[in-house]
Design brief:
- The chain is mainly α.
- The protein folds into three domains: 35 residues, no CATH class; 163 residues, no CATH class; 124 residues, no CATH class.
- α3 packs antiparallel against α13, α5 crosses α7 and α7 crosses α8.
- The radius of gyration is 23 Å and the shape is flat.
């Protein structure tokens, strides 16, 4: 590491120091420097809080928690495609197919559903380009705004850049990836001042942009299968017809482990629970938000399923809480999206209200809106918008209660 330290110091003096040709791009150098080493700057005075768990370590912990979802998502992409090809579907003929055929020359088991490594490599060919484009375009915007505003590049984008590829279909065009992450970073975060000042999750803002701008390409049947000419609906599409239609197509175990069609990283509830354990054990995520969102969603799902008048009018309401928990983005949103400390409620009581509201509204959308059977994405964004209001009401209630105590004395 001494070699890296010397190389970075020499680069700073030659190119990025004040008066040098690329001084305006110092945030780019600073991002590389702080990626490898702890900043040299030290706080002074007695009012600074010193802790070994800084923002960078928190972001790394979130990325580690997301790894099970990413690995399972890549495997599932290959598994779904190979199952379809085994049933007679055509292998992809675009550039993905060319890369897969090249890999198949070295690893012939790439197109066999029984091969775990083969399925993983198949999914990696789809995931990696999305991730690379997301990081290049998103970090480009981050560096540009950091240079203009003369502040450091924040590590928060490493989480956004990992989250976004996991909430889109594997077959999404790369130009849409670049356009969406640009919208998410610029409109969802940078215009409000950057990381820590945005009130909505940038990854969800980018996904919402795709949903409204390219609804036909982002929510159709074909986007969920990495083969040519085959349509396969997600489980939530069958859920709009009722629990019997859903269970005839997919089993509870396949939905829990994640061997079902869906976005890259949100199909496996098991992987999400592993990530939740990491975030809770390290104290990075709020257990109050997770618990209240689970109670709100599963409680309302149980009420809907037990009311004949509701189930007769809305077949999707027949799904019990166990199905709602393992389908779509409920578990992924509960663990990674709703708990975003920047956009979630900050007060303890507010976190209970915030999580409960999101969980309940997701079930309302799923059960009573057949045209949009998911709901998690837009509901969490709605929760982001009302989180400041929730905190405001909680703080004001505390102030009024304390004033009454003082007056009573």
């Amino acid at each position: 590491m001494k070699f890296v330290r010397k190389a970075l110091d020499a680069t700073e003096k030659r190119f990025f120091a004040p008066g040098k040709p690329f001084a305006f791009l110092y945030p780019l150098y600073d991002a590389a420097d702080t990626f490898f080493f702890t900043p040299n700057a030290k706080t002074s005075g007695t009012c600074a809080v010193r802790d070994c768990v800084d923002f960078k370590r928190m972001m790394i912990t979130v990325v580690l928690a997301l790894l099970p979802c990413a690995l399972m998502g890549m495997y599932n992409v290959g598994l779904q495609a190979n199952r379809l090809m085994e049933a007679g579907a055509t292998a992809p003929t675009d550039w993905h197919g060319a890369i897969l055929n090249w890999i198949n020359g070295f690893y012939p088991a790439i197109f066999e559903p029984s091969s775990v490594i083969g399925c993983f490599l198949y999914g990696l060919v789809y995931f990696l380009p999305i991730y690379i484009v997301t990081m290049i375009v998103g970090l480009g915007w981050e560096i540009l705004f950091a240079a203009i505003n003369k502040h450091e590049v924040n590590e928060g984008f490493f989480v956004t850049g990992f989250l976004f590829p996991l909430i889109v279909p594997a077959t999404i065009p790369l130009w849409q990836v670049a356009l969406a992450i640009s919208f998410g970073v610029v409109i969802g975060k940078e215009i409000f001042g950057g990381t820590g000042r945005n009130f909505m999750n940038p990854a969800l803002v980018a996904r919402a942009f795709l949903f409204f701008a390219y609804a036909g390409q982002i929510s159709g049947d074909k986007v969920w299968t990495a083969v040519d000419g085959v349509s396969k609906a997600t489980p939530l599409s069958f859920a709009t017809q009722g629990v019997d239609a859903l269970s005839a197509q997919y089993s509870m175990s396949s939905a829990f482990f994640g061997t079902i069609p869906g976005s890259l990283g949100e199909t496996s509830t098991l992987a999400c629970l592993i990530g939740a354990a990491i975030l809770l054990l390290t104290g990075v995520a709020s257990w109050r938000i997770m618990a209240s969102m689970f109670v709100g969603g599963m409680g309302l799902a149980a009420i809907f399923a037990s009311c004949p008048s509701i189930t007769e009018a809305f077949p999707a309401a027949t799904l019990g809480p166990q199905w709602h928990f393992v389908l779509g983005g409920f578990a992924f949103g509960m663990v990674f999206m709703a708990t975003d400390p920047v956009t979630a409620a900050a007060t303890k009581v507010g976190q209970y209200i915030y999580g409960f509201l999101i969980g309940a509204l997701i079930i309302v959308v799923r059960a009573m809106n057949p045209a949009y059977p998911e709901g998690a994405m837009l509901v969490i964004l709605f929760g982001n918008c009302v989180a400041p209001l929730i905190d405001y009401m909680v703080v004001n209630a505390n102030i009024r209660r304390r004033v009454k105590r003082l007056e009573a004395r």
